[in-house]
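User: I'm preparing a small set of examples for a lab meeting where we compare how different chains pack in three dimensions. I only have the primary sequence for this one, and I'd like the structure in token form so I can line it up with the others. Please keep the answer compact; I'll paste it straight into my notes.
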Amino acid sequence: HPSRQQVSHLVVKADGKPAADAEVYASYCRAGKVTISKSVSNGNGIVVWPSLPSSRVIVSGAKVAACVLPAHGTTFTDPLPAPTPEAERKYHLNPGVTGREPASFGTLFAGSGHSYTNGSFVRMSKGMTGQAGNELWPMAPGTPFRFAWAAGFMPLQMRLLADAYLPYLPEGMPQIDMPVEELPCAEYTGVEVRCTVKRTDGVLQPQGATVIITPAKTNRAAEMMAIPRFNWLLRANMAEDGAYRISLPPTGEYTFALRVNGKDGPPVTINLQPGDPTARVVALALP
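Assistant: Understood. Below is the structure token output for the 287-residue chain.
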């Protein structure tokens, strides 16, 4: 599709009011691959894109009602219609061959409600792709999707994209390439959290104890951490001094509790945000 120059339009919140200073994504097909651009609305809820294809473009974001830009026109001052799912097409997951870290894990999940398509890849060594590295996934254009990538080191490295949509495909295109390393993901470096436990007898760690970590529903990584592929992100390891150590992405609130013989101790909640100190200490009590 030829390009349109300087496309501007209004984005609104769920209540229909202009969404000022909102981060938004434009999802579309360009040169046979999924392309997602990122922008921010102004104080009046107007977003300006320097260039978009002459095709339907889905615009979405965490604080806006998703909408569809028509294939033609450059200025839209009224609220636009919401995207609707279309028949499934095949999306070709392409994790690339320029991995920055070995032993990293990626997953993409799409859909709405409880109807999700889930798929993952494992990069076994730096610059190489291993298990399930290049697959065709049937997914419905016009539905929201999330992508997450993580490398389990100390500190943890994570890339996360939420609130974007699978773009509409041209007629007659049965599949499209999705180069995941080109997605505009937020990047997070993990914060080291030490969970200390002290009993009255001075022993730091009781036998059979486990630290239970639960991200809040508002945590930006909560949905991704619920996927079996990523639940290892919530497992704390015992250090030599008897404390538990874990590296967590600074994506919101986490609640910690010490579980002994099936019983949980008092919960402790902390909020981890980008720019916070690189290490935190959480003092846990026995049940």
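A couple of notes for your slides: The longest strand covers residues 104-112. The helical segments are 222-225.

User: Perfect, thanks.
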